[in-house]
Design brief:
Number of helices: 18
Structural class: mainly alpha
Radius of gyration: 23 Å
Shape: globular
Order of helices and strands: HHHHHHHHHHHHHHHHHH
Helix content: over 70%
Largest sheet: none
Strand content: under 5%
């Protein structure tokens, strides 16, 4: 039993590390691409591309019925059952629905072109641009379905490779086109990037489950549960986007555009960049959790293992980000963004909470309880908006960081209370111990940023970072066979070179 539990911990650690690393590389490639594109297009071109991308992403999310997420659950259950015939049949269902959503998304993009042009732009007629972007929406819908199939079938290495290849191809496509054609290349770049992403994904998914054009009748009637769960996921996403729009509009009205820009920068670093550790959850953790069924002990063990690994990996990274934030902000942006440093530093504490709440939140989706998932997300979004307003009124931009910490702390209590009552989930002793060590260290690291003189704060902050790293390594050695495997590999390489 011990070996089985250790293997489970090692598996979670391994793939959280792999997908966290892949996400880190993606962010790095994205930064290079953004820097090059900024030089070639300038701020105006970057803004235009951002508006087009945001709009088609919204149309894609609103018309794909969330199949790219919800299909994972059913494919995963069939994969664990080993029923190859039913898997192949359900793959047809997924592909049929994705084709329908691709056509729907393209139609909406074309039909809504004049409306989108008037709503998105205050100058010129961009209807033709949105009509030309319609294929990108369709291509994204098809890619999403194939990715869901690969996730459900646990093709984790393929998924990691696909992510890296897609980001690299987007860089290769965009740089020469922007160099030669400037802003005129924006629409072709978006469409070609979506096409290359779809072709890369199809290469792996068709190899696993070849395309079968001769299908059974009635595929449209199947997949009802998948669509219901997907629609709840989409609605929750739209609600989350709505909350972000309300927050940014409020900051713009009560402050100015600079306040919105600073909040965006702080939010991006605290939630998006620091959240790369959580990227493995949707790819590896959610399919495995979906396949557990009604085995409560296995379910609790799986959730707790994921929390342990998330806290273990994210804590040292978060503590280092808090200390080095005054250096990171000018490096990623410019010196003009330095006022966001205090907000970003306190906001990073919210990611300790997210490392605990997110694995529990996936339980509701894994069980297929779509309405409950939507309601939990709705409560969180409302609380977040209210806290942002209250804390911004009290402490300005810094208060928005405090609001994020309070909102995610509330989220831990909310999702835990629901999971405990509905599914009988409870925190394990190792989770409580690990959180009880790393969270106080994180808070202490943050408090060192308030110490004067500066050299003393930096010294104490770095010392606490090393403590956090030391705790993480100690637990890794105790609980994971991965550490011993890495040491053996290093020794063998050293001997071969000696």
């Amino acid at each position: 039993m011990h070996d089985e539990r250790e293997d489970s911990f090692t598996h979670v650690l391994k793939y959280t590390g792999i997908f966290g690393g892949v996400q880190g590389l993606n962010i790095l490639i994205g930064l290079v691409r953004n820097k090059v594109v900024a030089l070639l297009l300038g701020p105006g071109g970057m803004g235009l591309m951002s508006l087009f991308n945001t709009t088609i992403n919204f149309i894609s999310q609103a018309t794909n019925f969330g199949i790219s997420f919800s299909a994972v659950r059913h494919v995963s259950e069939l994969f664990d059952a080993g029923d190859e015939d039913r898997i192949r049949h359900f793959v047809k269902v997924v592909r049929w629905w994705c084709l329908l959503t691709a056509l729907l998304g393209m139609l909406v993009c074309v039909m809504a072109g004049p409306l989108l042009s008037n709503y998105t732009f205050s100058w010129g007629d961009h209807t033709l641009h949105f009509v030309m972007l319609a294929p990108a929406v369709g291509l994204m819908a098809i890619s999403g379905g194939e990715i869901a199939i690969l996730k459900g079938a646990r093709q984790l290495k393929s998924l990691a490779v696909i992510q890296l290849q897609n980001m690299s191809l987007a860089l290769i496509i965009s740089v020469p086109l922007f160099y030669f054609f400037g802003e005129r290349a924006i629409v072709p770049v978006i469409v070609l990037s979506a096409l290359s992403a779809m072709l890369v994904t199809l290469r792996y998914s068709y190899r696993l489950y070849p395309l079968q054009l001769r299908g059974e009748k009635g595929l449209f009637r199947e997949g009802g549960e998948m669509v219901r769960l997907g629609v709840a996921f989409v609605l929750a996403g739209i609600l989350g986007s709505g909350a972000e729009i309300v927050i940014r509009s409020y900051l713009n009205v009560t402050g100015d555009l600079d306040t919105v820009g600073l909040y965006n920068a702080g939010y991006m670093i605290a939630v998006a960049y620091a959240g790369m550790v959580f990227s493995a959850m949707e790819t590896d953790y959610f399919p495995r959790l979906s396949a557990v069924g009604d085995d409560r002990e296995t379910m609790c063990d799986m959730v707790n293992k994921q929390i342990e690994v998330s806290v273990l990996i994210s804590s040292p990274m978060l503590s280092l980000l808090i200390v080095f934030m005054p250096l990171i902000i000018p490096m990623l942006f410019t010196d003009a963004f330095l006022p966001v440093v205090p907000m970003a530093q306190v906001a990073l504490l919210s990611m300790y909470m997210k490392a605990i709440s997110l694995p529990i939140a996936y339980l509701t989706l894994a069980k297929g309880h779509s309405l409950n998932f939507f309601l939990l997300e709705a409560v969180f979004d409302i609380v977040l908006v209210v806290l942002i307003v209250l804390c911004h009124n009290a402490w300005g931009l810094y208060g928005t960081g405090v609001a994020l910490v309070l909102a995610y702390s509330f989220d831990v209590v909310l999702v835990y209370a629901y999971a405990h009552v509905r599914y009988g989930y409870t925190f394990s002793a190792p989770v409580v111990q690990l959180a009880g060590i790393q969270l106080p260290i994180g808070i202490a690291v943050y408090l060192t940023t308030l110490i004067s003189p500066l050299w003393l704060g930096w010294g104490l902050g770095l010392l606490l970072c090393f403590v956090s790293i030391g705790v993480a390594f100690y637990i890794l050695r105790q609980k994971s066979s991965l550490w011993n495997a890495l040491i053996k590999k290093f020794k063998s390489k050293f001997r071969s070179h000696a």
